[in-house]
Design a protein that fits this description.
Length: 173
């Protein structure tokens, strides 16, 4: 069954934190592979494989842009077979990205810290909010470089495209 919800999200470029400090602060580790399917107009469609503590789950997600901060997200759990079938529709080479996501509960929200294998000094922090005007607060050990919510090169789909095309580089700060 597919569930839809409103996703209001801010995104930040941060200095890459050490895994030890994330564990120390209660963050939970997820290993993610995301593959983007061909464009469907204004919708973004992806499949995702998430491994948590040696358990793997598969998802199909469609996001529809509402504003710079808000999207309608429809997500459903799928089987491994469906994941493999949809993966074949992604083209070659696929727009694919791997990351380690650390989910860190803090200040009443969950901060998601995405650590990418192609960056060594930086990472992305995402925070889902209840409203577009909600204030975001980070723990002291998360060093914000700048907000990148409105920068077109930082959505995961854009990073996957840069990676596929061999044009990925570490952000300067």
């Amino acid at each position: 069954m597919s569930t839809a919800h409103l996703e209001i999200e801010r995104k930040y470029l941060i200095k890459r934190p050490g895994e030890d400090i994330l564990v120390q602060h209660g963050a939970k580790k997820y290993v993610i592979e995301q593959i983007y399917l061909p464009d469907r107009g204004e919708d973004t469609e992806r499949i995702r494989k998430i491994s948590i503590d040696r358990v793997t789950e598969y998802y199909h997600t469609v996001k529809k842009h509402v504003t710079d901060l808000t999207r309608i997200e429809k997500e459903r759990r799928i089987s491994r077979d469906e994941y493999e079938r949809l993966k074949k529709l992604a083209g070659y080479p696929p727009m694919r990205i791997e990351k380690v996501r650390w989910r860190l509960p803090y200040g009443g929200v969950c901060i998601e810290l995405d650590i990418y294998p192609f960056w060594h000094k930086t990472a992305i922090a995402e925070v889902e909010l209840a409203g577009e005007d909600e204030r975001v607060v980070f723990p002291d050990f998360v060093r914000i470089i700048r907000e990148v919510t409105h920068e077109k090169q930082y959505p995961n789909r854009a990073l996957a495209e840069l990676l596929r095309d061999g044009k990925i580089s570490e952000p300067e700060f």
